[in-house]
Amino acid sequence: TSASTAAEAPKEEAGITYIKSPMVGTFYRSASPESKPFTDEGGKVVENSVVCIIEAMKIMNEIQAETKGTVVEILVENGQPVEYGQRLFKIKQ
Questions:
Q1: Strand, coil or helix: 4
Q2: Per-residue pLDDT tens digits for 76-88
Q3: According to the CATH classification, is domain 14-92 in 2.40.50.100?
Q4: Residue-range domain boundaries for the chain
Q5: What is the SS3 assignment for 16?
Q6: How many of the other CB atoms lie within 10 Å of CB of 86?
Q7: How confident is the model at residue 13 (pLDDT cuts 50, 70, 90)?
Q8: Which whole-number Å values give the CA distances from 14 to 6, 48, 54, 86, 91, in the listed order?
């Protein structure tokens, strides 16, 4: 039914975009355990700014923002496994 389909797809919000994981791996908010996070909730991001690292097959992959805006919410905990396409950051443009 159309009601169950609508419930499965997250509702889009005006002016809101998401940074999604381009791969399966482990999410890290900073370059090392001693480093400050790349960004925090309320922080500003610009296109191509690094927002996190995803470790896949022992390779650290820097993930960049594809838009500019403010981080409204970080949707993943540091060290948590992530899936391809999983939402990582909620951004208000």
A1: helix
A2: 999 999 999 999 9
A3: yes
A4: 14-92
A5: strand
A6: 18
A7: confident
A8: 17, 22, 28, 20, 11
